[in-house]
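Example record used in the benchmark description.
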Amino acid sequence: MTGMKKGAGEDPFADDPDPEDQTDDASATGPTNASTERPDRAAGGRSTTIPYKFRRTSVQDGRDRVPLFLQPETKAAEDDALAAVEDAFESNISRTDLREALVTVGLQHLDEVEGQLEDWGYGMRFDE
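Model output (structure tokens):
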């Protein structure tokens, strides 16, 4: 099998640079135009959706920039998680993608998130 045909288009399978490794502090965000979610016609006429990783132009495309400050233990756990996921996929994973996946899964398990917040002191009352 030969490589991709040379031309004006970019390689959709190329890894996006990780903004964590960039020193640009600009607060610009990528476009949030939903039209990038274009269906593709697969064999048999079925409509499929191109996964976000392949239809975006950069790792920031379609995302809002939000500040994230992590405790040292959490940052170390994130580093371990990134290494584990990269081993599982045998591929480089964007730290931005990992973080959004962690948030998304956390949103699906709010009971566990509430438990962590309780561990940090939320819900404690001192006025009784």
